[in-house]
Design a protein that fits this description.
Blueprint (H helix, E strand, L loop, with lengths): L5 H29 L6 H19 L2 H13 L3 H19 L2 H24 L6 H17 L6 H9 L5 H29 L11 H15 L6 E5 L5 E4 L2 E6 L6 H20 L15 H15 L3 H14 L1 H4 L4 H8 L14 H20 L7 H13 L24 H21 L3 H6 L4 H10 L9 H9 L6 H13 L3
Parallel strand pairs: 1-3
Antiparallel strand pairs: 2-3
Helix pairs in contact: 1-2, 1-3, 2-5, 3-4, 5-6, 6-7, 8-15, 8-21, 9-10, 10-11, 11-17, 15-16, 15-17, 17-20, 17-21
The structure holds zinc ion (ZN).
The site of zinc ion (ZN) has 4 residues, from helix 10 and helix 11.
Length: 500
């Protein structure tokens, strides 16, 4: 079969329509979190439900099934085989889900997001619990319909990371936990023994922070001709190719939050901008999964932007932008804030690189129990607090810093959390491979040059789309199987041995 085979061309055209509808949904979803007046939530819910119905109709169109079947009869080879195989999987999944269920999930997600925001502000889990119950019931129904039967959590993980399941993730996390818990204890002890907290950064002008976030992310390589940066409650990245939307949030007394969340989201954005746009809508033009996605954001945020080399470039510009509030703050003191470890820090999005992964181990464990029916939604807050005590050595004082802190469950995005820590593992391995392939890389950063690293990532990761799953991609790109070793070694080097 050649790529000009009529049925293949029809398949590509149909995949393109599904992709375009997805981008419309993406822009409306972005708008919902960035611009929506509170009173418009119900109308937006209706809009999203209609779009979900249209997308479902396209994804299940008999013409799509017919085009696929014709391609399969002829026997696609090479890239076309990958496209057809992935399209077949998506099509088979879509035809098994009734349109009514898809629309219900979209409507519920929109309502639950607003309920979550209100419940979190009120620190009242019971106001959000019914929405979580409904999402879990829908996820179970979906698993039934898609043949996952008694393994609904495997489906949840596979959705974000094709090829992964709870068993494989559990094995990697057990390996990580064995090294991470003692490492966290050692570092916590050192930090506590060191006494005193790092210097507080206060009174940073918001407009200057916005300019800094734009300038730094542009310098790293995010293309603002094909993207933008706005403000939302929870930072995210939406879109792909020529329209990539980043968000951040600003706090005059926490300037590194806006800087690092902007860098993080720009890492996602550069991946989306680096995917082969000519293949948009097919498996060749989409990201390899959320774990690989997260490896891109983490690598820029942590390995690059928390390094001494990066700050030796940025510091003069940073001081020029915020001269008043940085008066009397030494370079060492500033670096200590950048790499601050907070023993027992309970908020995931504020967590340092070590404790962040403990947060993910906690959420993975609880999701597993919820899906296995071992934990009722009503008992979730208590289970959360207990596990927190076990991993962090303290309990949250209210639901806002405990079970209600994350946005994910409001959209039914179960199985997403593991991607963050898998992404950290992949990032650590990619970083080792990049340093071996590109001698003098940190010297580049000290000069504010990031093009060699971005070029290597474009070539090694971005250009490949979804040709491989996270395991295969990591093996090809780094020469090693995905494991916890590189991440543990990196964390140890930066936080355990190095004086901060
Ligand atoms: Zn991310």
């Amino acid at each position: 079969m050649t790529t000009s085979f009529p049925a293949y061309l029809e398949l590509l055209a149909r995949l393109r329509r599904i992709h375009v509808l997805g981008t419309v949904t993406g822009v409306l979803g972005w708008d919902e979190q960035v611009n929506l007046p509170p009173g418009a939530a119900v109308r937006r819910g209706e809009q999203m439900a209609l779009l979900a119905e249209l997308a479902h109709a396209e994804a299940t169109a008999p013409g799509l099934g017919a085009a696929l079947a014709k391609c399969e009869v002829v026997g696609p080879v090479g890239e076309a085989a990958l496209v057809v195989e992935a399209a077949r999987r998506d099509y088979d999944r879509a035809v098994k889900l009734p349109a009514e269920l898809v629309a219900e999930k979209a409507r519920l997600s929109s309502e639950a997001y607003h309920a979550w925001a209100v419940a979190r502000a009120a620190r009242d889990f019971s106001a959000f619990a019914p929405f979580l119950e409904k999402h879990l019931a829908l996820a179970r129904r979906e698993a039934e319909l898609l043949g996952y039967g008694d393994r609904p959590y495997d489906l949840a993980i596979d959705r974000h990371d094709p090829g992964l399941d709870a068993h494989r993730v559990g094995a990697l996390f057990a390996e990580l936990r064995a090294g991470l818990v003692p490492l966290a204890q050692r570092v916590d002890q050192r930090v506590r023994a060191g006494g005193g907290r790092p210097v507080a950064l206060r009174g940073f002008d918001i407009e200057a922070q916005r300019r800094m976030a734009l300038a730094v992310t542009a310098r790293l390589g995010f293309d603002y001709q094909r993207g933008r940066l706005d403000v939302s409650l929870h930072p995210f990245c939406e879109g792909s190719g020529d329209d990539v939307r980043l968000t951040t949030r600003f706090d005059a007394d926490n300037p590194l939050d806006s800087l690092y969340s902007s860098i993080h989201e720009a890492g996602h954005g550069m991946y989306e901008q680096g995917l082969p746009t000519g293949h948009a809508g097919t498996a060749l033009g989409v990201a390899a999964g959320m774990a690989v996605h997260e490896s891109q954001s983490r690598l820029w945020e942590n390995q690059v932007a928390r390094s001494r080399a990066f700050w030796s470039w940025l510091e003069p510009e940073y001081r020029a932008a915020f001269s008043g509030p940085l008066d009397g703050v030494s370079a060492d003191a500033l670096h200590a804030v950048v790499n601050q470890v907070e023993p027992g820090g309970l908020i995931r999005v504020d967590a340092d690189e070590i404790h962040y992964n403990l947060h993910i181990l906690l959420r993975f464990e609880l999701e597993k129990r919820l899906f296995a029916g071992e934990l009722a939604v009503a008992d979730l807050p208590a289970a959360w607090d207990d596990l927190c005590e076990e991993l962090f050595g303290r309990r949250p004082s209210h639901a806002g810093e405990g079970v209600l802190q994350d946005v994910h469950w409001s959209s039914g995005a179960f199985g997403y959390f593991p991607s963050y820590t898998l992404g950290n593992m992949i990032a650590a391995q990619l970083w080792d491979a990049a340093c071996a392939a590109l001698p003098g890389l940190e010297g580049d950063f000290a000069r504010g040059e990031f093009g060699r690293l971005l070029g290597w990532l474009r070539e090694t990761v971005h250009a490949h789309g979804r040709r491989e799953d996270a395991f295969a991609l990591t093996r090809r790109a780094t020469g090693l199987d995905l494991g916890a070793g590189a991440l543990l070694a990196y964390l140890e080097k930066r936080y355990d041995r190095e004086a901060n």
